[in-house]
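Teaching note: in complex prediction, the entire set of molecules is handled at once rather than each chain in isolation. The prompt given to students was simply: 'Predict the structure of this complex.' The entities are:
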Amino acid sequence: MPKLKIDGIEIEAKEGTTVLRAALDNGIFIPHFCWQTLLSISGNCRMCAVQVEGLPKLEMSCNLIAADGMIITTDTEEVRKTRRSVLEFLLINHPLDCPICDQAGECLLQDYHFKYSGAKSRFKEKKIKKSKAVNIGPHVKLDGERCILCSRCVRFCSEIAKESDLAIAERGDSSFITTAPGRRLDNPYSLNTVDLCPVGALTSSDFRFQKRVWFLKSSPSICPHCSTGCPIWIDHADGTIYRLRPRDDKTGNLFLCDEGRLSYKKWQSFKRIYFPKVKIWDDFKEMKTDETFTYIQSAVGGYAKSEIAGIISPRCSCEEIDAARSYFDVLFRSTIQETPFSEDTIIRRADKTPNNFYLDRLNIKPIPDNIKGSVLIVIDALSNDDLLKVTNLEWKGILQITHDDECVFPGADIVLPRATWAESDGTFINYSGKRQKFYKAMEPKGEVRGTEAWLRLIK
Amino acid sequence: MNDNIEKNIKRASLLSLLWKIQNESGFISDEDIKKVSVSLEIPESEVYGVVTFYGMLTRRKLGKNLICLCSNICCWLRGSGDILNYLKARLGIGPGETTKDGLFTLFTVECLGACGGAPMMMVNGEYFENLDYNKIDDIINGLKCRS
Amino acid sequence: MQILTQNFNIMNANRLSAYLGRDGYKSLGRLFSLRPEDVIEEVKKSGLRGRGGAGFPTGTKWGFVPKNSDGPVYLCVNADEGEPGTFKDRMLLERDPHKLIEGTIIASYAIGAKTAYVYIRGEYAKPCKILSAAIAEAYENNFLGKNILGKDFGLDIVVQRGAGAYICGEETSLISSLEGLRGYPKIKPPFPAIKGLFGRPTVVNNVETLSSLPFIVLNGWEPYSKIGTKKSPGTKLISVAGHVNKPGVYEIDMGLSLISFIEKYAGGVWKNRRLKAIIPGGSSFPVLSAEECANVNLDYESMISAGTMLGSGGMIVMDETTDMVACLKVLTDFYHHESCGQCSPCREGSGWAKKIMDRIVAGLGTKKDLDLLLDIADNMAGKTVCVFADALAMPIKSFITKFRAEFESRCL
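The expected output is the structure of the full assembly:
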């Protein structure tokens, strides 16, 4: 374990670690563009220069193995000059797009310029023109002029997504990022290139022009799209989710699949339910919670626990499932799923629900063929198979606690608006038994309540 | 280890295969890139990146005769500027362009390693050194006759 | 002393029969009686330095290859001669390809390589043909392939044509190109001697360097070390071009004075004009003004003390009528065109320098632009993955500094 000094601070690094990684792991920041923890070392941006005692030239810390006794200074005048010059070079052809660029506020070029340079432009020539706003893939837009050719996107697709969708074409300052002719950036992890792009060259089409990032609040959560359960940040403002980003919790994945990343949309579609509704004469009538009590009473009241069948969903948290277990004597699980059942050896799993593991552990079984009872209460949603099993039976009353009209199944008499995972604290257990907590990002609107609260209310 | 060696050999054959294709059909098309990608097991994007990196590989069909005039320092010192003007006047095209009859494409290129015979040009891969206007006339007329 | 050019004026010297008649492949007899490590020692003691441009001691370079490698070691022959002003390797390839093959066998034997790759620039179609024919002859006559001359050692030579990229003359870029990648230089460490072609220990040697080896192995290290100067022994091919009466490739003993060379070999400045400037070793090195030329010799040390480098020996001579501003524009155009674009300072800096030079030549430059160019050059040199950026910085700095008045007279 080599011991070295960075800026006077004694650091013990792991054998074979680079100076850059050792510094970052110990809270010493060295600016860099092309290096990224997931990817191979490229060494092309030249921003991470440091002074090594005893060596005449500055070294790039991303490719410098930490050695015992090394003395590194990250802030000499020469280092500062190099950083200023690298930034100057990167900015000479960079378009003045900040006012219309999504990356503003989280742009490394902006941040580093303000922190390490601040110099006025000396460039009086014509900037190079390249293609802008190119739909390089179904989810990603490319702006060739903003690109600083750090090649993070190229390396990510090749090394992590294992589909080399991107490459650099041409030579010199005519170089640009591209796909092969007729091909697109369409691997299942394409949106990670947007996270990785230090500037606004690769941006998310979904997020384009939606919100300035300084208005966003970031809340820690877990992606509910499949049983992997990647740790995420929910970026939201005013009760709306704008995007999901990977979160480094030191245990989970550092990148997301596109379907998981975009899965937030189904939890806040235009069909979202905010108020309870009761079916009166074949039509749903929206009403306030206290207005529903008489209807709920007539639907559920007076029945023994043995006559009330509950269906809980693998999209529910452990806490919701526990609440259901204490409420219901008769409890089954829905087999709600989502196609496609895309699975790979990278991070995606075919089980597109986050909490089947908990239902397995508690041995909560799917709906039996001969289900019977007087009252049916469904939490979240049913699959088509489930629907076949519960329809056309002599239910006296059917209640559904769900978040979206798409999930409301024919036959439901009373629908109560359910809080989504973004509006609740909770726990999911992923496919390998890993418990992961997610946290409430925003207050539910209208009369939306969590499952536990609804179950308390309808007792 | 063996898998890697095979992969390396396939990858290392890329440039030679691209030359073969260009020598046969004159340029490298989108179709060629797909075929090369499949046969050498290299991602299409990387094949495309290699094709566009090299100055002698072309993605479009060029004229029947390729005239590459050296425009680098030694040839410039010995009058390549005048030679270029003469070629432009004779052919009626500028660098990067092809004559309407498709006979000639003109390029200015970097040092061809024939500085001792400056000014010089490479025509269809053959070096012609110590150029003067007469020599150029002979070369162009000769090529016109041959077609 | 004629070591490299001894066969240049012999008819059909590129044919094996002619080559054998002139002590061709004779060094192999002694070669196989030595152990590879002894060959490395000999070359070290001979003082041979890389003739591609860097002048790094060849034997030392070979010594970096780990002994007892658990896999292949490769030799790469750098025949990507692209340095403006340099055309000496082309002569060697066309006139004496077997000497190169002999040198390749020696180098491969010394480092333990069983396969040597010749990377020859795409534009050298004719030299490639000649070399390939010579290689075929060598195979047919047991100088290549398995069990060369019945010995335990075998060597395959593979010829790979480049496709028009000057950067591929840089050794790690050459390796990238051989590997079928874009010709990007590789970050170091790892160094090619440890991890080069296909991740294996690799040595890249220039054509002229390798062609110098048969003499050294045949005669031992001492005779070679006695030619030239102490620190720059041996002979060097100088390819002189530009404003001289007799442009061409000449072999000189290291240490010959620059002015003597111009007068005696290159026939003096043409058209009875006065000398204005010389770039001694290819465009990537600082230019020498006429005054500076008076006191400098053609060897590595003398050039370095004069503030430039011997480089590839591609000498570019400029007479008094030369427009140094237009000349620098030709060079910045070249470097801008050939920058691989991998790293920020070079990719952007080369384009910026070109655009400023365009403006100056068009009469729209200012004195501030000259200082800006110098600053750009400073910000590029030493900050990049390879020395291409330095190669652009040196002409910019030397031209503007040494011909400042001329540049200023063109500014607003």
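Point out the following to students. Chain B has two domains: 2-53, 65-146. The mean pLDDT of chain B is 96.
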